[in-house]
Amino acid sequence: MDRIVMRAPAKINLSLDVTGRRDNGYHDVRMVMQQIGLSDEIIIEKTENGVFEQGTGKSLIIVETNSMTLPVNEDNLVFKAAGLIMEECGIGTGIHIFIDKKIPIAAGMAGGSTDAAAVLKGMNRVFDCGLTDERLRELGVRIGADIPFCIMGGTALAEGIGEMLTPLPAMPGCTVLIAKPGISVSTGYVYNEYDGLKNKEHPDVDGMTVAIHEKDILRISKLLGNSLEGVTQEKYPVIRRIKEIMLGNDAMGALMSGSGPTVFGLYDDNIKADKAAEMIKAEGIAEEVFITEPYNVSE
Ligand code: ATP
């Protein structure tokens, strides 16, 4: 096989609790992660045999993308992922990776992590490396805490720094409205502010896993919670406004994803989601708006 096209789905956090801070600055979290249909497409192609980067002895990795803002050098997570697989499997052939970017960047939707996961999985297949998913997850966590989840996919409870995974049953079908305000949020800033809070919010992560097992979409919607939402919302009131519009248009629940600024709403029908989307667009408070659905691994 010389070429493979991989789907790289975004994620939302149905529940995100920050439970501690480690000496190295990493935070312990407990999160219920859910992939959604909104996806990047990653095209991986072998280039001619024996293409080497002059002087480095390393195989050549070329990254291209339709995004005007993404780096295409070592700063791109797919570059790092390709390098890891080449080293692990002793690959000497050049590789070309194209990222068709649709997931908003730096939005709390694991856009970079899912691309890297797709490259780890895709290159494992293209080069017939025979690495297990477990080994791919071990490699992935070296470049990003969300990558192991993106390799597993679907719905899962993530603990530790996000790398300890327990798969969960697929969440029930619904409409997911995504709105990304045109602001950039520093994840470091959000966690720092959160560390300084006297009264920290802790969502009911265990209740959420039970609701998912019971396939109770109303309970899932009611239990949506994110420890970090208060901090980001305080600094960027647009997040509160987007939630208001979503809930005002009969969302079953609405929440900020990750450290933000993306907000999602869960709906039992597309018409309500469409109405909310139109209102959000009319107010000009979101740079990107999508209507999608939960993505399950069997798809
Ligand atoms: P998370 O939800 O895991 O915190 P995020 O959605 O907030 O991630 P990303 O979209 O992954 O954030 O981007 C964060 C940073 O990573 C950006 O500054 C971006 O330049 C860099 N980056 C590197 N590679 C990629 C990639 N393939 N896609 C998106 N961002 C990338």
Highlighted features:
299 residues; seven-stranded mixed beta sheet; binds adenosine-5'-triphosphate; alpha+beta; Alpha-Beta Plaits; single chain; four-stranded antiparallel beta sheet; 2 domains; Ribosomal Protein S5, domain 2
Indicate the topology:
Layout: E1 3-21, E2 27-46, E3 61-65, H1 77-89, E4 95-100, H2 111-126, H3 133-141, H4 147-152, E5 155-159, E6 164-167, E7 175-180, H5 187-196, H6 205-213, H7 217-223, E8 225-226, H8 229-235, H9 238-248, E9 253-256, E10 263-267, H10 270-283, E11 288-292
Helix pairs in contact: 1-2, 2-3, 6-7, 9-10
Bound molecules: adenosine-5'-triphosphate.
The site of adenosine-5'-triphosphate (ATP) has 20 residues, from α1 and α2.
